[in-house]
């Protein structure tokens, strides 16, 4: 077997990893892929990453992109993405990750579409669980957060699809870049009062974490809400618009205070989800948090807040500091490649 390429086809990003047949990580990269605009965006994202793919590589694919409103339902989305990926890489060397069912070869995805749909979280948790430890995967990305307990090599998720996972707080639709600010809180402290944020797409969490100084390089790959600059001043202007204010010397200070409060509101929401999962009898006592995703700085903060041990998942997969960081950012893509190598 040649190299194994892991692909995570999301609705907003395409993530790629390359591992050796023995499972050693060689590369991990991410590219913007606004799939809601059309499948041509997947082709463009793939072309930007294609230099990482050697001849005769095998491909392991997971996805969440079937959720975008380009398609009328998830089954149609799985079929369209599967066909598009097959056209890009060749169907004879392609398998799809189908959750608890494992990998299914190209040509059989239609029979397993519901298991293939949005299974990338399970791939990451299954790869993390292979060490046999008791842990809680907290993968905080640009758009969503996955919180998945595991123990003794088993994934202990209660939900199997997005609806079930949201009901169990194993999927929280908050991320550190693309989440609209109006989704963070029903009211916000500003100017001495509580203001309900405008129900408009004026600012995102990228603006919040840019103002707090937490936003990592490369975490914000899509245009800002207004298509404007990605500077602290521009982020302050967008955030202030959420509460009906303009940017000046006084309100700039208030914008930073508001960003800090919103960051704390998001952390509280994730702490509540973690507490709920840890209250389950099967979750294990005081598990180690394994942080992944571009927002894993919040996973570390959460672990500190709750008195839990913390380990960076990327460092579990590579001793090279730069490669470990990329692996954590692209965890589902790395996970499916590692799982296929271990099969």
CATH C-level of the largest domain: Alpha Beta
Number of strand elements? 14
According to CATH, what is the topology of the largest domain?
Nucleotidyltransferase, domain 5
- Main-sheet strand order equals 3-2-1-4-5-6
The percent of residues in helical segments reads: 25-40%
Chain oligomer state: single chain
Mean pLDDT value: 96
Q: What is the C-alpha radius of gyration, as a whole number of Å?
A: 20 Å
Residue runs with pLDDT of under 50 for 5 or more positions = none
Strand content: 15-25%
Q: Briefly note the structural class of the backbone.
A: alpha/beta
* Corresponding CATH architecture of the largest domain: 2-Layer Sandwich
Largest sheet properties: 6 strands, mixed
- Estimate the global geometry from the Cα principal axes: globular
Number of domains: 2
Total of DSSP H or I helical runs spanning 4+ residues = 12
Distance between the ends: 12 Å
- CATH H-tier superfamily of the largest domain: ATPase, nucleotide binding domain
* Order of secondary-structure elements: EEEHEHEEHHEEEHEEEHHHEHEHHH
Summarize this entry quickly:
This protein is α/β, with parallel strands linked by helices and about 350 residues long.
